[in-house]
Amino acid sequence: MILDAVFPGVFLSINGKIGLCLVALLIGAWEIYSYWYFRNDKFSKIKCSIEDHTIDCNNLNRHIEELKRTRLDINSYDYGQGDLYDTSRYRFRRSEWKKTQRDEKVHNCSASVCKAANDQPFKYLCKYFGISINEETLAHLENALNNYLAAYQGKILLEQERDRLMQTITDPLPSLYYKLNKSRLAKELGFEAVRLFDIDFQTYRFQYVSSGGNSSYEVSIILDLENLEKFIHYIGDKLRFKNSAKGQRALMTPQLRDKIKTRDNSTCQRCWISVMDEPNLLIEIDHIIPISKGGTTTEDNLQALCWRCNRTKGATIS
Description:
Blueprint: H1 2-6, H2 8-37, H3 41-49, H4 51-68, E1 106-108, H5 111-119, H6 121-128, H7 135-167, H8 172-180, H9 182-189, E2 203-209, E3 216-222, H10 225-239, H11 254-263, E4 283-287, E5 302-306, H12 307-313
Parallel strand pairs: 1-2
Antiparallel strand pairs: 2-3, 4-5
Helix pairs in contact: 4-7, 5-6, 7-10, 8-9
């Protein structure tokens, strides 16, 4: 007590170091025990007991990654390549010239076109990126939106199913790991990493750089879920389906997806499994006659399929 009063800083320093050493020892002991536990027979049996479910979750994860890789295949015209040099004797700075980019997703244009693209993005996207307003384009955009929506929902359901499976394990150490380090437990059980919501939505840009290189600006059009749905409505309105032979054609939107799921009671129309059987089941919307074989987006040509059946069906008719 006397020494503590005379040399308080010294004893606090010593006590602090001892405390840090004890914490380090505890962490080290915990890691050694965890390493041993996750490799002993007891945990192996737990891992084997849910192996089929783990494989199913990993297959769903890969399916979602495939959906996320859906591309729109929309590109600007290729105007060729040129090299611009300032050969004037005055060597102006022309600082904005360096902002000029040549890319299939970038259209270099005049100031007036850039301004008009800002006012009417879809109109100018079609005009300068070679997008034809026809059934094929609409079907392509609808397929992309359908896949992106399924990917978003699938990731949420996959996370919920993985958590549900880990919560079924009652052994003390895995239960503790679920609370403290869920990702470590998932990895030890064999679950592949789940990357949430990293869809690479494509961005199209109209870019203006003045001839003197002193000013520049651009208009960016990101075809994310919201803008893609609006673009589908834009193309659909232009095609005037109500006045055509395909007057009953619908547009693949989130609302239509929900309508088909409700109509089919969220039940796969091939294997008849439903969300009542699997609460975290991903139900997708499928064209019975694929678009590639002449099918259209009409309610009688749409059906609810579980992700497994939709993945195996591909472009076949069923």
